[in-house]
Automatic annotation (TrEMBL):
This is Uncharacterized protein. The lineage of its organism: Eukaryota, Metazoa, Chordata, Craniata, Vertebrata.
Amino acid sequence: VRHFRELSYAGAILRDTWVLTDVGITPSSAICCLLKREPVVRVFSAVTGETLSVSGTVFLLSTSVARLMTLVSQQCGLPVSSFRLSSPTGLQLYDCNRLHDYAIDLGMAFLVQ
């Protein structure tokens, strides 16, 4: 799980690129700082030797293995058909199943082979 801060004003989330006076925030205005959590799955690529962090609300335990493989493919540039995902214990993950079928928890690291 990745923790991050988010600033909001009058119910709107403030972006990093915004200038406060440009969006109507005046001196002595109250800005709310929220600490949020975002699910993260880590994938180690044996091909490149890199560990990728795939994050977002897509990673609920009901996410399919096929969806995870698509996201990994987009991040590392490998075609989906050229690799397989394995659990930390070495168990191969099959496309038709969901992460919860393998007793996967958020924060676990997968292996790209």
